Amino acid sequence: MTTLLIAFGLLFVLMCLRVPVAISIGLAAMLAVAAELGWKVFPVSAQVMVDGVNSFVLIAAPFFMLAGEIMNRGGLTRRIFRLANALVGRLPGGLGQVNVMASMLFAGMTGSAISDAVGLGAMEIEAMRERGYDRKLSAAITAASSVIGPMIPPSVPMVIYGALAGVSIGSLFLAGLVPGILMGVALMITVAIYAKLGYCPVEEKVGRTEILGALWAALPSLALPVIVVGGIYSGFFTPTEAAVVATAYAGVLAMLYREISPREYAGILIRVGSATGALFLIVAATALLGWIVTRSGVMIEVALWLGANVSSQFELLLMVVALCLVVGLFMEPIAALVLLVPILLPAVKILQIDLVHFGIVVILSLMIGLLTPPVGLILFVVAKIAEISIQQMIKAIMPFLLTLIVVLLILTAFPAVVLVLPRLAYGLPVW
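The structure corresponding to this sequence follows.
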């Protein structure tokens, strides 16, 4: 136990010093292994880390990332924004509503909050600035709507969680649809309230011709999540094969749109390769830390303590939500997911919590952690895009952050809301 406390203390210190997450976790884990096994630390660490990433399911993650990057660079962003503007631009809040709707549509292409914030953020904030929107409000809406990305399939965090917990990725993809839509609706209501208070200009009404034209232009791109989820549930291909199909489909669309030159593909592959390397290094390092935690018996003690002292599923889930929001202050979602899930799973199984519901709650909690002041990663990304201070960003995001937390609590308290689509797909009772 002392060794683990030292390891986690070192991890916290290294992360406070802004040492990369994977290196921080790896050094802390190797220190713990060395304290127990001495010079065997190197062969043992190498074996455990290789085993940690030796998963067929994990291969889906880089392919989904590649598909999203190709579609982001291939003209999809502009088409999605045009469609969102045609559908909801006339609602109270105008481009604020477009911002949220575009994130919901774009989510099915990338499955990444950061990709959404970067891919759509600059375009959305600039468009809102030109229409007279307050820069701080524009940044807050952009940041809040970006966390919808990992909830609507395909989703890289869901792939990671499915591999860790042994849960059907297809079920996770279906389970994320309703929460993603609820998040979008809640944010749109919040934007409408701002509009009623006079913070948003009134937009011009879009004609039917523009709506049909925008829909026709975006329709091929919108088919991607349908192909992925439909293919998995029809049994036509596995989640990993679905990721490859999604990448191939994105490549065909990019060729048709002719907005990516052959030279740009090299840059795309380099960026995705770099991101994949960082992702797998985090998974490998966290696998080593998880191995030493399991070896210490702490996971069993935590599970037994929670099983004896937590009286209900909802109580445990509230504890998990609070833990994830705090962890989200200083750790990237993927690293936090890989670290926390193996520790919490035994207690979750003791209390017979549905693993799909648990996964959605954990992922959403960690995504909201990206918005949590003072060090939420998306706050810094969007503040830089909008050219405002982090203090202004934090003040502007608070109403939207509270809205998302309310949605999170509703999804935590009512599992049926999350599980309705997976249960319908398997022919099970909804309630």
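The longest helix spans residues 262-296.
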